[in-house]
Amino acid sequence: MATGTARKQKVIMAAFDRGQVPTIACINHASVGLGVDFNKLIVALQKFLDECFVPVWGTPAKLVKATRPLPGAWTLVFLDNADAANALGYHDLTVNGLPLAKIFVKTTLQDNQKVSVTACHELAEMMVDPAINLWSDGPNNMLYAYEMCDAVEEQEFLIDGIAMSDFVYPAFFEGFRKPKSTQFDYLKKVTKPFQILAGGYSLVRKGTSVTQIFGSVAKQKRFAREDRRQHRSEYRKRLVKRRNVAKSSRAAAGNGGRRQEKLQPMQPSMTTH
């Protein structure tokens, strides 16, 4: 489906049972190589969860190779790009209303990024915030998106020779922590809460206004060139917008039908942390 004719996707509000260990179906629909053997990648991602991520965040999962979405399973799907996601019916959640993470292979390679790192990034963030609706109180009276890898997304390490993504620790979102007082990310690159590394960014919110802050000018320029369609951050923005519209509608109904003025979006900025 062409970009200009893609149908507008409905935002699905969802919550997930966090008391169970999910099975995640790993599906490769990409028409180009991933830069790594798919079977070996699944093994490395499972080791990433078991040995690195779960001891910190306590969110286990079982990854299995599949050719299609499995009943009752979450999905990690590799696609060429956002157009392929639309064409194949992969949207915000699985057809059963369960978490879905998408890795756009051609888009990732065009951005000179590693598919394995992107897959690790998306997996980690799906594990902690599967509904893409969590925010954390941050500096300057702003809410920071509860994303595990955005702030450190260009930092990586190897598992079985395959590149994985750095990720932040819970302390990263705890503003009371003093600099260098504890570990804030897996690779120990972050020294204080809410710090955005040079290759990272964060989605931030003030009221209903949402924007990004960047760790460097170079990152901001790279971000502007990326195809962000169907990205987690875009879905998160749509959730906020939908809630704002619903809130405004209720306010208008209680105010003689007069709509309240919408807040203007904040401008992207550089972090000062």
Folded structure, characterized:
The protein is an alpha/beta fold. It has one domain (22-270). It has six helices and eleven strands. It has helices at 38-57, 82-88, 105-110, 115-128, 217-225, 232-253; strands at residues 23-28, 62-66, 74-79, 100-104, 135-137, 143-145, 156-159, 162-165, 201-206, 209-214, 269-270. The strands form three sheets. A five-stranded mixed β-sheet has the order 5-6-9-10-11. Strand 7 (156-159) and strand 8 form a beta hairpin. Helix 1 (38-57) runs parallel beside helix 4. It is globular, with a radius of gyration of 19 Å. The relative contact order is 0.13.
Determine the number of helices (DSSP H or I, runs of at least 4 residues).
6
Structural class: alpha/beta
Principal-axes geometry comes out as globular
How many distinct beta strands?
11
Lateral strand order in the biggest sheet: 5-6-9-10-11
Mean pLDDT: 84
Q: Roughly how much helix do the residues carry, as a percent range?
A: 25-40%
Poorly predicted tracts of residues: 1-14, 248-253, 255-267
Q: Whole-Å distance between the termini?
A: 41 Å
| Biggest β-sheet description | 5 strands, mixed
Strand content range: 15-25%
**Rg over C-alpha atoms, rounded to the nearest angstrom:** 19 Å
Question: In total, how many domains does the architecture comprise?
Answer: 1
Series of secondary-structure elements, N-terminal to C-terminal: EHEEHEHHEEEEEEHHE
